[in-house]
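Re: the request from the purification team.
They wanted to know what the chain is likely to look like in 3D before they choose a buffer screen. I agreed to run a prediction and write the result into the notebook, where they can find it.
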Amino acid sequence: MTDFQLPMSASDIQKILPHRYPIILVDRITELVPGEYVIGYKNITANEDIFNGHFPGSPIFPGVLICEAMAQTAGVLGFLTTGNKAEDGYLLLYAGLDKIRFKRPVVPGDRLDMELRLISSKRGIYKVDCKATVDGELACQGELMFAERKVD
């Protein structure tokens, strides 16, 4: 999918990413410049299965899933930057998480806004600066690394 229109809906995103329910964690892409940056969001809803156990009576969206949502948003940027596609056997896999810090809990009813900027790209390894906010307040920030791999 080299041509894309903004904003990208959930069905547009599923044409790019290999993820499916229940692990698809990006609802919309609102801005994207291939090779530079991407902005998107995930709506945090009370009916998500994770809240049955994290934590009953005090639901908090897990930090690891915030990182995964940011990684999937970066995946959209990665696939649209390289032009490679999941349907052709390409995956973007975690290679590292650096300087990740959580600043506030994310709870049902929040909209997790994510902004990622490409820092570097070398031999199929990409590094992005990322931040996630809720109502303009920083929820998480750090750097993610991912590697593009062809799988059979």
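For the purification team: The chain has a mean pLDDT of 95.
Please add any questions underneath this entry.
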